[in-house]
């Protein structure tokens, strides 16, 4: 069942979205050469607790994965793209890091992700991240009231193919609202003017992610971390949006200072 949200409910989702956007931008600034992934995880835990928010990831237990997820972030490095488990790993110069998070505030949820390059950027990594961001913008622009879900999927897939990347069909975006994952599934490739009608009140997370040289994936033994099947680098971008009578509204916008490459001279954070 798909629940259309009222303007007031969308406004309440936007409160969670603002926090998610601000914290993601903050985390992208903390990520630097010499920072341990667990420093980022503990930083996010502290900020979520201070805000009185609830992580949607903690104790999440879908059909895949081994046991409940016991972290508030997904941190995926280099060839890892989705559901990366925070662990004892110190970021190195040139690493490509994807950060994904979802939180609830007063019963309403928002979900967002970004990818950044730590230290010295590889032009091929810049291109890959750029593709996910351009595809996300195209998907959002296609999310017009009265349109079809396939319009979003087709817009994302068209951008991916124009950059020369394939699209994996196993994981994509999703409905969101009272919980992190609701109907409908939002594929990253599809046919325009097909699928369900985009009615005002529909709230979805759009999340293009691509691998540099394959559309195939594999799982780590932990059952969570998803990597490119050929070991090539990956990137991921995501926003929660609402369909309104006047067009799409991004609920997880980030401060304008957000950038895809972190400062290699920034001092590492420490875990609390």
From TrEMBL:
InterPro entries: Creatinase/aminopeptidase-like, Pept_M24, Pept_M24_MAP, Pept_M24A_MAP1
Details of cofactor binding: Binds 2 divalent metal cations per subunit. Has a high-affinity and a low affinity metal-binding site. The true nature of the physiological cofactor is under debate. The enzyme is active with cobalt, zinc, manganese or divalent iron ions. Most likely, methionine aminopeptidases function as mononuclear Fe(2+)-metalloproteases under physiological conditions, and the catalytically relevant metal-binding site has been assigned to the histidine-containing high-affinity site.
Keywords of this entry: Aminopeptidase, Hydrolase, Metal-binding, Protease
Pfam families attached to this UniProt entry: Peptidase_M24
Keyword Hydrolase among UniProt keywords: yes
Disordered as annotated region, ranges: 245-272
Molecular function (Gene Ontology), one example: metalloaminopeptidase activity
Amino acids binding a divalent metal cation 1: 100, 111, 238
Protein task: Removes the N-terminal methionine from nascent proteins. The N-terminal methionine is often cleaved when the second residue in the primary sequence is small and uncharged (Met-Ala-, Cys, Gly, Pro, Ser, Thr, or Val). Requires deformylation of the N(alpha)-formylated initiator methionine before it can be hydrolyzed.
The name this protein goes by in its record: Methionine aminopeptidase
Organism of provenance: Paractinoplanes ferrugineus
């Amino acid at each position: 069942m798909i629940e259309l949200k009222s303007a007031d409910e969308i406004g309440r989702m936007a409160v969670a979205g603002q926090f998610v956007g601000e914290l993601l931008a903050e985390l992208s600034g903390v990520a630097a050469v010499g920072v341990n992934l667990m420093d980022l995880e503990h930083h996010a835990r502290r900020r979520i607790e201070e805000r009185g928010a609830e992580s949607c990831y903690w104790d999440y237990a879908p059909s895949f994965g081994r046991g409940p997820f016991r972290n508030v972030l997904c941190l995926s490095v280099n060839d890892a793209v989705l559901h990366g488990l925070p662990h004892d790993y110190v970021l190195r110069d040139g690493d490509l890091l994807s950060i994904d998070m979802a939180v609830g505030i007063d019963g309403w949820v928002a979900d967002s992700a970004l990818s950044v390059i730590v230290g010295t950027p590889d032009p091929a990594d810049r291109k890959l991240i750029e593709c996910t961001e351009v595809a996300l913008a195209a998907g959002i622009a296609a999310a017009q009231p009265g349109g079809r879900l396939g319009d979003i999927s087709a817009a994302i897939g068209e951008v991916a193919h124009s950059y020369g990347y394939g699209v994996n069909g196993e994981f994509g975006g999703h409905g969101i609202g009272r919980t992190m994952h609701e109907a409908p599934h939002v594929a990253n490739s599809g046919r325009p003017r097909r699928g369900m009608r985009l009615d005002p009140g529909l709230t979805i997370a759009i999340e293009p992610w691509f691998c540099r040289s394959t559309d195939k994936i594999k799982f780590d033994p932990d059952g969570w971390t998803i990597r490119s099947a050929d070991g090539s680098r990956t990137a991921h971008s995501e926003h929660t949006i609402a369909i309104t009578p006047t067009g799409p509204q991004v609920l997880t916008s980030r401060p304008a200072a957000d950038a895809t490459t972190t400062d290699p001279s920034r001092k590492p954070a420490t875990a609390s």
